[in-house]
């Protein structure tokens, strides 16, 4: 089972891409927990909330890694702890040790980094529409530090999905 993380700035099509790739490859995908969590808050989120989100992400990684480990194919995650780490650093200027320890396990096999080439779509949990290029570069640096392979995904609509499919097929045929 190959674990693929789909990350990128806000409003870059990560969820749609995860859903479409899971259909194409007949694979499981794990939705972004942070969105669900923040949407249900009746107040602004806090450092402790982001810790809860990170711990749930780690729990999901462990759960799905264990339950899917005997299967062949792909497992897609619609986000990854790199995004949470960046958020901790950006908003609170500190990252909990438990998060860095999990990132050090190098859980994912491959990354799809979504470029901010799609039109920004505002919603109740998105905050930084004008800073997407800044966050894109930061996520790219973080992925590079893992030493894991990644591909930048660009394009609109079906072309974006085709670009991701080709990237996955090309990498895993090596």
Note the main attributes of this structure:
174 residues; Rossmann fold; five-stranded parallel sheet; 51% helix; globular
Describe the model:
With 174 residues, the chain is an alpha/beta fold. It has one domain (2-172): 3-Layer(aba) Sandwich (Rossmann fold). It has seven helices and five strands; from the N terminus they run E-H-E-H-H-E-H-H-E-H-E-H. It has helices at residues 14-24, 33-39, 47-68, 81-92, 97-103, 132-146, 158-172; strands at 2-7, 28-30, 74-77, 110-114, 150-153. Helix 2 (33-39) packs antiparallel against helix 3. The model has no long low-confidence stretch (mean pLDDT 91).
List the helices and strands and how they pair.
Blueprint (H helix, E strand, L loop, with lengths): L1 E6 L6 H11 L3 E3 L2 H7 L7 H22 L5 E4 L3 H12 L4 H7 L6 E5 L17 H15 L3 E4 L4 H15 L2
Parallel strand pairs: 1-3, 1-4, 2-3, 4-5
Helix pairs in contact: 1-7, 2-3, 3-4
CATH topology descriptor: Rossmann fold
Classify the helix fraction into a percent range: 40-55%
Strand content: 5-15%
Q: What is the general shape?
A: globular
CATH superfamily: P-loop containing nucleotide triphosphate hydrolases
Task: Let me know the average pLDDT.
Answer: 91
> Which radius of gyration do the C-alpha atoms yield?
15 Å
User: How do the helices and strands follow one another from N- to C-terminus?
Assistant: EHEHHEHHEHEH
Structural class call reads: alpha/beta
- Characterize the biggest β-sheet: 5 strands, parallel
- The number of distinct structural domains comes to 1
Strand order of the largest sheet: 2-3-1-4-5
* Parts with pLDDT < 50 across at least 5 consecutive residues: none
Q: So what's the CATH class?
A: Alpha Beta
Total beta-strand segments: 5
What is the CATH-assigned architecture? 3-Layer(aba) Sandwich
Q: Determine the N-to-C terminus distance.
A: 16 Å
